[in-house]
Design goal:
This protein has 264 residues and is an alpha/beta fold. It contains seven helices and ten strands.
């Protein structure tokens, strides 16, 4: 479904006289259709940069990106993205927020209303259709953002730390709900996260990146059963997989910490 071949990104150092800063370096991986694929790595390793390249919001300095075999170099209708930052429109109700993308595509009002209501029900916000973001909790607002992305029926859903601002209990429950939605829609999801437990709870595979410039250090297969709910986090196998991801990540986190110290 998604393939990256030797994708690199360098910021600066072209015509403005600034120092060239390599963010990601020759990153290659593939994501299968219907897979939940997580990317984890130390702060500053280029995780979000990589996701924005896939989304078409940044252009890679070199390398190749394909979706279902089609070469991509900018925003693609098969890809939608959910950000960590608050992204709901405060002046729009839940329903109007979820309808927004369909409205921009010129979908007729009756059709987009039905489609949006179905998606609102799927993400568990039935009864809050006429509520404004200021009347919703942080977790509910992220459900609105997820519904607004999924209503466009993307082949690939990109998620950049979507639960990063939420408390741990809410993260776990929303993660469980996200898996249910993924299973129902057969969605392909690429998640960037700092949270090791979250990556193991949700994923089929976890890609661990090196300290900057970000490269692929290893990809860990998460062989936990499906369907999967939050009770999995109490299992012995879950603990072993968390330890396995951390063992790959620990050295890179120390390197990243030292890099930050040197900059200051």
């Amino acid at each position: 479904m998604l393939s990256l071949q030797k994708v690199s990104k360098i910021f600066g150092g072209v015509d403005d006289g600034s120092t060239a800063v390599p963010a990601v370096d020759a990153v290659s991986f593939e994501v299968r259709e219907g897979e939940f694929f997580s990317i984890i790595g130390p702060s500053g390793c280029g995780k979000s940069t990589l996701l924005r390249i896939i989304a078409g919001l940044l252009r890679a300095s070199s390398g190749e990106l394909t979706v279902a075999g089609e070469l991509v170099s900018g925003p693609h209708p098969s890809i939608a993205m959910v950000f960590q930052e608050e992204s709901t429109f405060p002046w729009r109700t839940t329903l109007a927020n979820v309808e927004f993308g369909l409205q921009m595509r010129g979908v007729a009002e009756q059709q987009r209303r039905k489609t949006a209501l179905d998606m609102i029900g799927l993400v568990g916000l039935g009864g809050f259709e006429q509520s404004y973001p200021s009347e919703l909790s942080g977790g509910m607002k992220q459900r609105v953002a997820i519904a607004r992305a999924l209503v466009l029926e993307p082949k690939i859903l990109l998620m950049d730390e979507p639960f990063g601002a939420l408390d741990e209990q809410t993260r776990i429950i929303l993660g469980e709900e996200l898996l249910k939605i993924r299973d129902q829609l057969r969605q392909t999801i690429v998640l960037v996260t700092h949270n090791i437990n979250e990556s193991v709870q949700l994923s089929d595979r976890v890609m661990v990146m090196t300290a900057r410039p970000g490269q692929v250090k290893t990809i860990v297969d998460i062989d936990l059963p499906h369907p999967r709910d939050s009770s999995i986090i109490t299992s012995e196998r879950f603990g072993r997989l968390v330890a396995l991801v951390w063992s790959a990540l620990r050295e890179e986190s120390i390197k990243s910490f030292k890099q930050a110290e040197q900059r200051h």
